[in-house]
Amino acid sequence: MDTKTGKNAMRGKLVVGNWKMNGGLAANAALLGEIASGWTRPAGRELAVCVPSPYLVQAQAALSSTPIAWGAQDVSEHAAGAYTGEVSAGMLVEFGCRYAIVGHSERRANFCDSDGVVAAKAKAALLKGIVPIVCVGETLAEREAGTTEAVVLRQIDAVLDKVGQDASRMVVAYEPVWAIGTGRTATPVEAQAVHATLRVRLARSGAVNVPLLYGGSVKADNAQALFGMADIDGGLIGGASLKSTEFLAIAHA
Ligand code: 13P
After folding, report:
1. How far is the CA of 81 from the centre of ligand 1 (A)?
2. Which residue ranges of the chain lie beneath pLDDT 70?
3. Which of 20, 19, 178 is nearest to 111 (CA)?
4. What does the alpha-carbon distance between residue 197 and residue 191 come to, in Å, rounded to a whole number?
5. What residues are annotated to the active site?
């Protein structure tokens, strides 16, 4: 334990870029090259990018000789079969993915990913050795109704119940829906309060040391204050991960 920050040195520090549905071959090549050459790999820190599935082969080629990991933005709960449009965890393994985001609020809201589906996706990833980045977070209406804690605990409990002791191999990201892409970030104190709640619940499942990321309008100028909080172990970065200088500044914060 670092007595100044209250941080546990056991926990890895991780910054992950979520490109969402952005990119193109030429732009990706430039971005991946810039990130690879600019990442100084400070001790105990890891950097990763989660790209659209068609670009996994490009990410693999660009990053496999670097310390930067890559992953997908979703994964099927099914192993194989008649599931048109889906991508399985086994397929992600073939492209060297370390991570798969599951339960992003955009998928929960737009693609009907329920708590049960998110839990099944996390389990499917873990079964193949892929680390699920499990996203939880409340809407503005839920925050204003005072139900933030109940919402994030309901979301994380669904996953913990499903994956059992494999929970220690996950990553969790708290992303308040009202802070995503809005420029309105949670304050470090607001984010820390939710992270502390999640940490207690994870500890009960033997997963006290999983990296707990914050996501939602993280920028170079607010990353350091957020990442300095006791239970914030890094970030899940949307818009700012598409600009190499901004992303690298966040990753080095
Ligand atoms: P922004 O960083 O663009 O707010 O997006 C956050 C996010 O959704 C990352 O998964």
Report:
1. 32
2. 1-7, 9
3. 20
4. 10
5. 104, 175
